[in-house]
Hints:
The protein is an alpha/beta fold. It has helices at 92-100, 108-111, 116-121, 133-145, 164-173, 191-199, 219-230, 247-260, 285-291; strands at 76-81, 103-107, 124-128, 149-154, 184-186, 200-201, 207-211, 235-239, 266-271, 279-284, 301-305, 311-313, 316-318. It has two domains: 63-189, 3-Layer(aba) Sandwich (Cobalt-precorrin-4 Transmethylase, domain 1); 192-318, Tetrapyrrole methylase, C-terminal domain (Methyltransferase, Cobalt-precorrin-4 Transmethylase, Domain 2).
Amino acid sequence: MSTDDTTTETDESTSKCGASETTQSSSSSTSSSKCGASTSSESSKSKCDASSSATKKKTEEKVGSTVDDFEGDPGSLTAVGLGPGEPEGMTQRAKAELLDAEHIVGYTTYTELLPDEIIEQADDMYNTPMCGEVSRTEEAIDRALAGNDVAIIGSGDPNVYALAGLALEIVESKGATASMLDFEVVPGVPAAQSCGARLGAPLVNDSVSVSLSDHLTPMPEIESRLHAVAGESFTISIYNPWSRKRRENFQKACEILLTHRDEDTPVGIVHGASRDDEAVEITTLGELEAYGETDLVDMTTTIVVGNEETYVWDGRMVTPRGYESKYDY
Length: 329
Ligand SMILES: C[S@@+](CC[C@H](N)C(=O)[O-])C[C@H]1O[C@@H](n2cnc3c(N)ncnc32)[C@H](O)[C@@H]1O
């Protein structure tokens, strides 16, 4: 069960989680399971790159092992949010949790963001490329059920379009419980807040987030959510705004926003907050669609659409909280 093209077959048979079996493994960080109880998926190559999901069929990713397949005392499972990317953006608690973890499981991009001291102290790192989130999460759970203290990591916060919920759903489907794994969520700074900080103060009043990914939510549902929130006075943080296969979703989102909001509405675009390729721009809603074809807008971008009171001052987006109606300043 491997999704990594660089994975090579070896005769490695030592399990890092108690159960033994012959597995595939690459050299250091590996995308092959070190855990005996395996998923029944033939491949964790997810259908997440499928462009249209309105008529979604189930993938072959399935939960394989159950709690009865493991002997001995379980370890622990913690979902840890890394924040936007730079080590300094990680909370002290997240860092402490990762330094304590025996196994760290995550999408390759995120394991690569970890500071060396965390990577060096872990007994094992398990990473897979994008997608395969069900099998990756199951791998983390199996390792914990086999007795290891496991951290499953993701960018931002584990509760924001992330794996905390999936982890609990799979734990339940295995017949295990959150309590037996001491399941915990360690929060991280979500992208909306990291990006809001780069833009000034656009999120100071009521705000909502909308993801344009139609991997799990059909586009008509996303459209109706966008209509609902754009028609109210929220600032809107748009996650997963654009990919080659989601070009039309982005165009459609811009159209919907423009049916509810003025074309002069300020919009902030933040690409790769706190990462090496960070880029920030403030534009208007009328101009937004054209940015879809630039490097600024992709799957590591968050877009913040102002409400009807948001303005731009000195290069910063400002959304008044309402103080001006009560106080003189
Ligand atoms: C699957 S969601 C994960 C969100 C994450 N759990 C959080 O709390 O931010 C991935 C999306 O988060 C946003 N994102 C994550 N990291 C970002 C960053 N450093 N800068 C801008 N947007 C980011 C992008 O919209 C990306 O498509």
